[in-house]
Structure formats: structure tokens, C-alpha cells
Recover the amino acids of this structure.
């Protein structure tokens, strides 16, 4: 009977997490009327069995790795207001006269709209971002790095791209990801990940740009570690429990 009650409780805990996306220990104690010690043991057991992801103060629903990477054109229409919120933060972090790398990503395409600087050098391997800067009247020095065109993301990648990046000295890099899990930064394509690595390695300050849907969302290729990053720039809808977890690796903006 005790085993049955425990199983029933575990099932309710799992249901709450899956329905809400994330819950705190306090939420579960309040709802199920059991001790916090019992809830913590339940969460540890569910995490050990790969049913949930344990975070500081609670737990979060697991996300599956997507096998269908959206194109950059499709991504442009997702979470637009939140992407603009992030892009505005990024623009505020760029100083006059800096050399900045802006990597591929629909969020990064909005950065140019919020820049008010007189002089800036922008390096990118993204054709959409290069075009976004060309479409303005801003008198910035633009460098589009050549390489093999990847139509899914509109990025130029590969050995030629990486070799060119290795010769540059950049003030800051702003790189997007498809997913972050614990300290792992991930995307859908190894070649693109290797180019992002090269850009981060040759920048004095390194920043990751990711809306809240990318947090605790695994993807195919692990290309960098979050604890080597100066800051994670995300939006106001990011879950506090999740942000507390990532704050152990880097600064959250």
C-alpha cells in the first residue's frame, strides 16, 4: 500500500511538472501536502530515472531534441517581441569604435535597429545580418566572412570561414544557439558550431544570445561551454528557476 501511495504521488508530481513546464519544491509541498524532504526525494528519483530535469529549488520538464531544424526565414516569425527585447539589450552593450562579431540568428537580425553609434566595425558570417546592416544608412565598417553557404541558417561556414576568424581580434562576440543544457551550448550543425567556436575564441568578451525557449532545450551538436562565456542574454519570460541555475555558470542579462 505504501508503495502504491508513493507511485501515485510520483505520478502527480510528474504530471504537475509536465503541465506547468517547471515547479518549485514549495509548489509541490503546497499541492500534495507532504514534507519538503519527501518532495526532494521524489524529484531526485524522477531525475535519476530521466523523467525530469532537477534545477535549484525545484524541477523542470524535459525537452526532446528536435530533428527538424527551422530555417532562418521560419524563425523570423517566432517570439518576435521577445527577440526585439533581447536585440535591444545587445545593442546597449556595444561601445563606439568596437569590433563586434554578430553571428547568425533571427534575434541578431534585429540588433541593427537599436544601434545609435556613429562608428562601429561589424564582422559576420550571416548573409541576412549583412543585408540588414546594408539596408540602413549607418556608416559602419562591415566584414562578411566567406565560406560554404548553409541555406538553412543563411550562414557561411567551414574551413575558410574559421581560418579567417582565427586572424581577427574582436572586442565582443554575440552568438546565438539552438539550445542550452547545463553548461553545454548547442546547435543543429557541426560545421556551424565550429565556426561559432572560432568566433568566440577570438573575441575578448563572449556573449550568448538566446530567447527563453532555448533554455534547457538540447540540440544535436555541443560546441562550447557556458562557463567560458561572459554573459547569457535572454528575455523577460525566462523562468526564474532556470535562470538561477544558469547564473551558476555565467552572468545573466
Amino acid at each position: 500500500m505504501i508503495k502504491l501511495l508513493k507511485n501515485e504521488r510520483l505520478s502527480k508530481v510528474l504530471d504537475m511538472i509536465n503541465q506547468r513546464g517547471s515547479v518549485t519544491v514549495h509548489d509541490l509541498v503546497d499541492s500534495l501536502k507532504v514534507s519538503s524532504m519527501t518532495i526532494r526525494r521524489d524529484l531526485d528519483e524522477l531525475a535519476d530515472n530521466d523523467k525530469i530535469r532537477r534545477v535549484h529549488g525545484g524541477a523542470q520538464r524535459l525537452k526532446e531534441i528536435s530533428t527538424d531544424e527551422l530555417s532562418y526565414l521560419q524563425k523570423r516569425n517566432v517570439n518576435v517581441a521577445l527577440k526585439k527585447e533581447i536585440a535591444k539589450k545587445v545593442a546597449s552593450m556595444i561601445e563606439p569604435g568596437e569590433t563586434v562579431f554578430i553571428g547568425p540568428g533571427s534575434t541578431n537580425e534585429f540588433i541593427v535597429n537599436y544601434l545609435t553609434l556613429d562608428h562601429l566595425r561589424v564582422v559576420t558570417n550571416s548573409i541576412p545580418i549583412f543585408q540588414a546592416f546594408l539596408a540602413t544608412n549607418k556608416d559602419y565598417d562591415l566584414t562578411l566572412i566567406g565560406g560554404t553557404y548553409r541555406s538553412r541558417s543563411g550562414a557561411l561556414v567551414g574551413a575558410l570561414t574559421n581560418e579567417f576568424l582565427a586572424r581577427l581580434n574582436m572586442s565582443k562576440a554575440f552568438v546565438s544557439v539552438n539550445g542550452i543544457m547545463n553548461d553545454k551550448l548547442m546547435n543543429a550543425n557541426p560545421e556551424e558550431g565550429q565556426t561559432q567556436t572560432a568566433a568566440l575564441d577570438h573575441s575578448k568578451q563572449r556573449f550568448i544570445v538566446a530567447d527563453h525557449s532555448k533554455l534547457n532545450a538540447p540540440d544535436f551538436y555541443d560546441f562550447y561551454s557556458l562557463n567560458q562565456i561572459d554573459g547569457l542574454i535572454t528575455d523577460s519570460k525566462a523562468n526564474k528557476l532556470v535562470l538561477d541555475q544558469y547564473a551558476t555558470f555565467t552572468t545573466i542579462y
